[in-house]
DNA sequence: GTCGATCTTGAACAGATCTTGAACAAGGCG
DNA sequence: CGCCTTGTTCAAGATCTGTTCAAGATCGAC
């Protein structure tokens, strides 16, 4: 569950926001003051923070800096009263990730929130892990594991497995696979692909008959089933 | 000098933008088509990319994805014709860092550009001290230690080791290493890299067979395992 | 310019990896 | 069932890759 912290004292803004974010499936924590907001960052560990620039107690920029000390990676979106203020904020370099001038369209803010969350996620789980069945594949380190134990795959075998596992349950045609794992215009008119599928199946322990992990789609290609 | 690449075919938008960005002290490269844009990313090495969603040749989203393959860290700001399109873009997850709906205030766009550059810079700062296994590397003093004892590394050897250790367990392709330690467009079609890996391994005492610190990923490149 | 350090290059080797064809198995269709 | 097509497996050999060495080129300090 994704938790969003909203620090905003103006109810005319917070009320509709809470409603929309709720329907979008987010878990929303709301505070009206900066100090409560800082506390909530620690206690509620939000995935993203929406921060009003003008708060009754502490300046939003100071809240931002304070939060940055503890959670430098937390995505923070600043809500500013006027677009002109953005220059100032950026100049001050408080460390917000995004700035949305009020008034804003709710859909736009939601889009920005999702964009920010996606970027944060991408940056954090940089090791792109593909899992399916007993297999785990890390495309960054180029290692593959069967039941937690590392497999010794060759380059082609790894590419092949990673491709199939990138879209589990999707059937890849032989042409697609050749174009992706081999060269775009390579045309080994032979049994090359089958041989690799064969050794790969053996290495990943897919020895039932017919195989259950890498499934043959006769006349078309292959499919990975997690 | 900070270089910004603007990919935009509509002159009513690009013309004022070029002017403002120029006065802001940026070095601006302008292309009108997506394919020229992709080329400019490689040849001009921009620090940030402004990308129109609708281009005469390639869809802006495809340009974005293509660029992401080579330069995953390049900040990309998408210019979208209408705010409503943002939802779509975000949903498609092409990997832009920010989305600015047209029409936009120039000051706001400039603010966003500066914010994005600041974030990118902060994220890029290499940690001064890298450790892994018996090795410790200080990128500031450019010294490396093996079990606390200083190593005598040449410049290339140091860069190579620092690069590999900057992301332990990540496999770097030969191309990535050459682009990073040597020049972007250097193409020593020879065994240069291997020779350096070889001497580096000897110096860091990685003499088991196969080596355990700098691991060969056959057909791809190398990986540091701490 | 000279000298030493560093970097690059090509050759030779070892070994891993890939490809190929053949033989066989399995499915599809009349 | 018989025939054709398609997929699987195997072993052999071709090809590709990485390692190391030694020599030559280049660079930088003096």
Note down, in words, how this protein is organized:
Two copies of one chain form a homodimer. Chain A is of the alpha/beta class and 226 residues long. Chain A contains eight helices and twelve strands. Chain A has helices spanning 11-23, 34-44, 60-70, 85-92, 106-124, 155-166, 174-181, 192-203, and strands at 3-7, 27-31, 48-52, 76-80, 98-101, 129-132, 135-138, 143-146, 149-150, 171-173, 214-217, 221-224. In chain A, the strands form three sheets. Chain A has a five-stranded parallel β-sheet, sandwiched between helices. Chain A has a four-stranded antiparallel β-sheet with strand order 6-7-8-9, covered by helices on one side. In chain A, helix 2 (34-44) runs parallel beside helix 3. The longest helix of chain A has 19 residues, at 106-124. The radius of gyration of chain A is 25 Å and the shape is elongated. Chain A binds chain B through residues 83-84, 86-87, 89-90, 93, 96-99, 101, 105, 107-108, 110-112, 114-115, 118-119, 122-123, 127, 140-142, 154-156, and chain B through 83-84, 86-87, 89-90, 93, 95-99, 101, 105, 107-108, 110-112, 114-115, 118-119, 123, 167, 169-171, 217-220, 223. The structure holds a DNA duplex (30 and 30 nucleotides).
Largest sheet of chain A: 5 strands, parallel
Question: In which order are the strands of the major sheet of chain A placed?
Answer: 2-1-3-4-5
**Unreliably modeled segments of chain A:** none
> How many DSSP H or I helices of chain A?
8
- The computed structural class of chain A is alpha/beta
Largest interface: A-B, 31 and 33 residues
């Amino acid at each position: 569950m994704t938790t969003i912290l909203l620090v905003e004292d103006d109810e005319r803004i917070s009320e509709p926001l809470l409603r929309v974010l709720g329907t979008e499936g987010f878990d929303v924590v709301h505070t009206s003051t900066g100090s409560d907001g800082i506390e909530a960052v620690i206690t509620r560990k939000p995935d993203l923070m929406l921060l009003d620039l003008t708060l009754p107690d502490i300046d939003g920029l100071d809240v931002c800096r304070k939060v940055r000390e503890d959670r430098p990676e937390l995505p923070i979106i600043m809500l500013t009263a006027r677009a002109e203020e953005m220059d100032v904020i950026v100049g001050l370099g408080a460390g917000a990730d995004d700035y949305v001038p009020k008034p804003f369209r709710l859909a736009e803010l939601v889009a920005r929130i999702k964009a920010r969350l996606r970027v944060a996620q991408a940056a954090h789980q940089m090791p792109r892990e593909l899992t399916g069945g007993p297999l785990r594949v890390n495309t960054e380190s180029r290692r593959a594991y069967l039941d937690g134990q590392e497999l010794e795959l060759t380059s082609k075998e790894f590419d092949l497995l990673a491709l199939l596992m990138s879209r589990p349950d999707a059937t890849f045609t032989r042409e697609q696979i050749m174009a992706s794992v081999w060269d775009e215009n390579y045309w080994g008119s032979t049994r090359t692909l089958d041989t690799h599928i064969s050794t790969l199946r053996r290495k990943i322990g897919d020895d039932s008959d017919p195989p259950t992990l890498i499934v043959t789609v006769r006349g078309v290609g292959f499919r990975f089933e997690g």
